[in-house]
Amino acid sequence: MPDHSRTGTFTDEAATGPAGSASLVTLTGENSHVFPRELDRPRPIIERGEGVWLYDTRGNPLLDAVSGGAMITNLGHGRADIAQVARAQASRVGYLYDQQFTSEPHEHLARELTSLAGQGFTRVHFVSGGAEANETAIRLMRSYHVERGQPSRTKFISPAQAYHGPTMTTLGLTGRPGLQTPYQPYIQQQLHIPPSSWPFDPSGEGALAALDELVSTHGADTIAGFFCEPISAAAFPAYTPPQRFWTGLAERREQYGFLIAFDEVVTGIGRTGRWFAADQIPLRPDIITTAKGLGAGYAAIGAMICREHVFDAIAAGSRAFEHGHTWGGAPSSCAVGLAVLVPPVVSSLVVMRRVEAGARVLPGV
Ligand SMILES: Cc1ncc(COP(=O)(O)O)c(C=O)c1O
After folding, report:
1. Residue 164 placed within a domain
2. pTM of the model
3. pLDDT at residue 28 in the model
4. What's the DSSP call for residue 18?
5. Which tens digit of pLDDT belongs to each residue from 43-90?
6. How many domains is the chain built from?
7. 33, 2 contact by CB (below 8 A)
8. How far is the CA of 129 from the centre of ligand 1 (A)?
9. Given this model, what pLDDT does residue 351 score?
10. Is residue 290 part of a domain?
């Protein structure tokens, strides 16, 4: 049981590891009021970070090789320049609801993201994180078909070995029963294909055949979209299907009339050496979602970016895209997003370094 007399504070005594020891100062669920993900996992108490280093409350250093643990802090910890932008924006106006208001950082960041996404992407809807961005994409793909008079299109297909977030709908996009237990009763099951993979389907033809079979079983007029990570993050680390899979997927989009969304929550904003992994793939998705690196750990922000023809379905139809998340487009988060991306020269250097490093690392992999 946590010691309630310490509520609101914690000291070295509340943590494991003797005072003066070089071992990290940690807490488990036993000695904390936080409801942790894993009750028995000791979590280091981090006081500050600088670049790739984190320091616990006794100053013990810890190399952060996982960008804050969730592939977020792409620009390193302790960036005073980004913190200063957040502070300045919060002092002017930190929050506005995007249904009723807009702001310069909101508009400016949307403009920047569409220009970085290129390839005909013209509109951005902001949210607070990756699952929200994916949920927004799902709502938009569904709305697109409803607006165009095809309400029978309700189903999504995705590779089974994937991760798209912890919400009920995004968990449904993941065909991994282990991740869905015990929430299965609430999860709307979507359709899955086995991912093409180098040991089992190196050509990508197997995954395409599975896609054809699903479409033929369920009917093309029931399929709303195909959802995938262009390069897998955690579920199938760094894997991307062969070219043939992507060209075959593009052919099937034409043939069957569904939309394609790329989940770039991890791969977006320079992680793979381009602003978006989509730039490296011979298929132009209709929608890209992104999050993590966009706030780089300095703001909770995500984005759903779409091409003009998707937006047009709403513009020519009901002219309303219902529901929004409270923090979507808040000036304070958008200002941080801009500080991460602009001036592009700074961020480009980071991206280019990844391209160069990738060229060195790849031959050895
Ligand atoms: C590929 C991918 N999509 C979506 C998500 C969900 O993002 P969030 O945790 O910000 O909701 C994650 C999180 O790790 C992810 O890796």
Report:
1. yes
2. 0.92
3. 87
4. -
5. 999 999 999 999 999 999 999 999 999 999 999 999 999 999 999 999
6. 2
7. yes
8. 8
9. 63
10. yes
